[in-house]
Amino acid sequence: MKKSNYFCMIVVLIITSMIAVGCAKNVPFTYPIKEAGHKGGDLTPSQAYNMATADEHVFIVDVRSRPEHVLVGHPTIAYHVPVKFWTGKHARKGYGMIMNENFAEDLKKRFNPETDTLIFMCRSGSRSCAATNLAASNAGWPTDKIYNMMGGFEGDKVKNKDSVYYGKRMLGGWKNEGLPWTYKIDSTLAYPEAD
Prior knowledge:
Elements: H1 3-25, E1 41-43, H2 45-54, E2 58-62, H3 66-71, E3 74-75, E4 79-80, E5 84-90, E6 95-99, H4 103-110, E7 117-121, H5 126-138, E8 146-149, E9 156-157, E10 169-171, E11 181-182
Parallel strand pairs: 1-8, 2-4, 2-7, 7-8
Antiparallel strand pairs: 3-11, 5-6, 9-10
C-alpha cells in the first residue's frame, strides 16, 4: 500500500471516530429507575427544571451537604436543605455523615405542604429518595407533591471498564444535561448558617 493511501485511510478513520464521538454525546440518556421504594414520583433533571420554572409553587430542593453544595456547585434555582450533615471527619467508606434531625421542620419553615410541590436532588439520587420519604412521613407532604430527581446533580458513574470515562459521573444528572448551575451562594436559597 502506498504511503499516500495509508495516510488517507488514517485521516478517514480519525474523522469517522470524531463524528461518532460527537454524535454519541447527543444520544439521550435513559435514567434507570432506582428500586428504592421511595414515596412520590421520579423526574429527570430537565423535567424538574421545566416544572420549577413554569410554576411558582414548584421548588427544587438540594439535599446534599453544605460542602457539596458550595464546592461542587448547585442549580441556580435550588433551595438548599441538607438531609445529612458532614461531620468533618472521614468515615471507613467516604465521609462521615449524620442525619439532619430538623429536616422536616426545615422544610416546613420554607415551604407549605398544602400548596408547594418539592423536587429533591442530591449527588446521584439516593439521598433524594430518603428525602421524599421524610417529607411524606415527617413533614406531611402528599405523595403527589414530592419527587426524586433521577441522576441528581452529578449523574451516574460510567460502568463500562473499557471506557475512558470509567468511574466518572458522566451519565445524566443536572450538570451533564447542561442545565443552569453555579458556585455562587444566594443567601435567599442557601441553608442558614448555624448561630
